[in-house]
């Protein structure tokens, strides 16, 4: 299981959030210190600018694999792919499955994606594809376009719950079917519009997903994405530690909140101020009955409050 943190890409889609180069470099350093293996840095709408950030991260020697997104239907796809392969460890070609994105017809989408893949794979680089609106698309078409992607060299396929409308049981069933149909690693990218991004990410993992997209504090477009902190703690409780260090979460969460200006709710799971606050003295007699995990795991302490 690979955690791909998208704070430096998806986090910038959070309303009102902007980050300077120095701030992005600092977040990258904090992610590396936390043991996160990969960061998604490049957005398909700002490839050239984000590649400058990726180069700066690499120049500093930050121990992160870097990845980015390119629209497969863009007139600049070939050029952006060439530039991205120079400094990114992974390049993902996006082909939205909704009809409102040209090309509109399914067979045309497959043909355009395969053409973009052929050019990218010829560069002998790590190439994947991503399908926005996966959970809203016709399942047979999703299976077909994914099979075509694998046959043309895609080694990763990211399925997106773009509008956050899926639910865990459906997500698990979807990923299980895709794992049976495709011979590539499947990543899941969940949005939190219905408060289910973390649950859907965990369901995807249970269904056989090889990777999950997460963000610090659950930042992201609209209601955000699956929270790095929540996903890691839940996987940790299930015996899947992944090399990520939960004791760094307090510093990481606070730093990202300060830099983005998006405060963390006191009620937020894992890193919220209230998680280990108790108003009843009896809770402290047997704290494991009232706490999902030991506060020491994330460098916190329990407190009794009035």
In brief:
With 306 residues, this protein is an alpha/beta fold. The chain contains nine helices and ten strands.
Q: Could you walk me through the main structural features you see in this protein, from its secondary elements to its overall organization?
A:
Helix content is 37%, strand content 15%. By secondary structure, the protein is α/β, with parallel strands linked by helices. It has one domain (2-259): Aldolase class I (TIM Barrel), CATH 3.20.20.70. An 8-stranded parallel barrel has the order 1-2-3-4-5-6-7-8, surrounded by 7 helices. It has a two-stranded parallel ribbon with strand order 9-10. The longest helix is centred in the middle third of the chain and has 16 residues, at 106-121.
**Which percent range describes the beta-strand content?**
15-25%
How can the largest sheet be summarized?
8 strands, parallel, barrel
Question: Can you list the strand order of the major beta sheet?
Answer: 1-2-3-4-5-6-7-8
What distance separates the N and C termini? Answer: 42 Å
Counting DSSP H or I runs of 4 or more residues, the number of helices is 9
CATH fold-level name: TIM Barrel
CATH class designation: Alpha Beta
Order of helices and strands: EHEHEHEHEHEHEHEHHEE
Helix content: 25-40%
- Class inferred from helices and paired strands: alpha/beta
Rg from Cα: 20 Å
Which segments are poorly predicted (pLDDT under 50) over 5 or more consecutive residues?
A: none
Under CATH, the homologous superfamily reads Aldolase class I
Q: Which overall shape is indicated by the principal axes computed on the Cα atoms?
A: globular
Let me know the number of strands: 10
Integer count of domains:
1
**What is the arithmetic mean of pLDDT?**
96
